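Quick illustration, no need to memorize.
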Amino acid sequence: MIVVDGRPVAPDAAHTVLDACRTAGAHVPTLCHDARVEPRGHCRACLVDVDGRLVPACTTPAHDGQRIATDTPALAAYRRDLCELMLAESAPRGAAAALCAATGADGTRYPPRARDGRADDSHPYLRFDLEACIKCRLCVQVCEDVQGQFVYAFAGRGEGAHLSWGDGVRFADTDCVACGACASACPSGAIDDVDRRRATSTAGLRTVRTTCGYCGVGCQLDVRTDGTDVVQIDGTRAASVNAGHLCVKGRYAHRFVGHPDRLTTPLVRRGGRRDAPLVPAGWDEALDLVARKMDEHRGKVAALSSSRCTNEENYLLQKWLRAGLATHNVDCCARVCHGPTAAGMRRVLGTGAATNSLADIAHADVILVSGSNATVGHPVTGARIKQAVLRGARLIVIDPRRTELAAIADAHLQLRPGSNVALLNSLACALFDLALENRAFLAARTTGAAELRAFVAQYAPERAEALTGVPAALVRRAAALWGNAERPYQAHGLGMTEHFQGSESVMLLCNLSLLVGGFGREGVGVNPLRGQNNVQGAADMGCQPDLLTGYADPADPAVRERFTRVWGRPLPTDRGLTIPKMYRAAARGDVRALFILGEDVVQTDPAAHVDPAFAALDFIVVQEIFLSKTAERADVVLPGACFFEKDGTFTNGERRIQRVRKVVEPPPGARADWQILCELMARTGLPQPFAHPSDVMDEIAQVAPPFAGVSFARLEGDGLQWPVPDAAHPGTGILHAQAFPVGKAVLPQVQYVPSPVLANAGGEAAYPLRLVTGRVLEHYNCGTMTRRTDAVRLVAHDALEIHPDDARALGVVDGAPVRVVSAYGEARAHAALTEAVAPGTCFLSFHFPETGTNDVTSDIVDRVADCPEYKLTPVRVEPIR
């Protein structure tokens, strides 16, 4: 037994002496201690008496028999002396200043020493006052060990030691990614941020835990509010998803909430003319008009749901379309991102969602990241991967760009855009050649291994190199790493899915994990990195034409009976349309009215799809928080609420259902989206009994067996990972532990087929470069929210990344304006010369509407799931003189 100030503590309850003290309820001051990093004992504030010796509590192991004292005259004298030294060298604020005050230190014991008087306010978010620095080095540690960024160092020795980020360099010009971990950890106020300074001067703040509304990681936020505005955000330290860590968007990109551009009244075009202006209208007028027009076009209506909205709102939208308007014509943006993931994984495994948890990254010994710039698109997950690599995990990256993860990978397979299938078959061939397949697993849980071996022989790395551009030796090296892994973990993104053969690429990713037995246990699996905050949830809720809530088959009589019983209406019998098919049907006149919930498809979807459809539609409704490019073309605009302004749930990429809690009220005149949908349902003859989103979740549990055990009460804390089949079930972190839903998985054989876009484009002479589109760290999708924050001070426009050799041949200068031309249209951006892209490849983001990125992309879609091919468009680049 350990004894702390006379109180017993069981030895197995404590790893360190500090743990034992806290378990006993004893207060021990700390300054450089942070649960996110290993303790190093730099500050010496946590010294306690252990068996008569003063030792640092944070680094001293706890063991049976220790007698610990935390409050003795000697400790009190030591702590005061420590603080006197601190005050002689610095002018701390925050926790360090509070400790000094508590010990009675006043800075008079020792003569003042020279202080580091530097200050830096160059960054949009972070602030530095190094006179307050106590040299605890916690900022260095969290930057390295939490974010993996290595921005800070201590220069000099002894009294001359000081925090540095490069001599004479403004902080805004460093490689900082503005995650804010340093500011959240700094105990002295030397590193601060604009929101913390604002919070310090604001009285009466309360903290609300909610879920981030940006990417699909689903970080938990502790939001401080004065009741009318979001003042400051920290990550929730106890959350398993992010353990207190956040990215620049989750922590700082919240000023859009009270932005003057927010929609606060419905807008309508009166007179039934598309060229009439949008003018303010009352809610009754707008809702009555929407209900009348949707009723008028019954049989020819369709709807797009929103991954930015809650599960409950997505559920209501698809219920309205099916039970109220008698059509399966409802789809979501999963179609244009991870629709191929769901289709491919369902075909091979039986379930189209992540098999494991994000926390499993820490247990993997080899990580394969395919088609994902994770540190940009999913920054907290990207940081997890960097942490794993720093601890010794091996990393393989498949990506046409030299991303941040590719730069630290053991093997970077920098393939030509569009050659995914050939490369994945080549890796499978190399695994067989090296005899690294897991024969016991293949025999027990798969069929078709011998047939696959024979099939992939045609993709031997030496042959496939001509298709992929990846050296055969590098493919074999990657296969050896993967095949020798004990815990092989896969994460993939849109670089795998947004292709003509996207679904088939995902099927081959499943092959790679099946071949090495990488399913059903900790640290393994196939795990899509979902792009938007609730893209998983939108699909889960049935916002897709061929599947109902919980992925139920509408053709199954038992399913139809269950939904009919709960909804009180029969299910429609039409087949329903995917998003690309909706556009084509609209252009033909077969869809006349389109309802769009929180999506800016004019900016994010290919113009080759959207423009003909919008020109032909009779009636367009957009429910939004800003007047987006899509809203500008609508007949009715309904002002909704952002994620800080409503209650509900989101489901992240690891199938974790988490609470969304209202932090502030919507702007006067705007309404929560679930309330707007209930109003429309009532006006079209389908009144709903719901008084709160929790009531909607209760109905979801009735109709969908995977969510039968889910309720708001059970989602407190870390939420639940579906399936949750009953109210006593703890949730499912690992799928397929014993078997796949399909029984034995059939190893698919997929022949590589070059995308038709390469043939349609007029040849390499006309369009010699292959364009890939995607995101940058500082912005989110179409930029509706982030462009209304100080993120625009970090990145002010989209940039075309192009290799210096290509730029030189074209007469393109770094930073100069260029025209990007394809067979479908053109975009304009500024050139950014970089060797991150290979010669012959270029990259363009799509966050700023003036760029017109998706005016360039093609009308080609994945041949299984109808996902647009955003990751391959032949283009030429021209300097704008």
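Residues 73-89 form the longest helix (17 residues).
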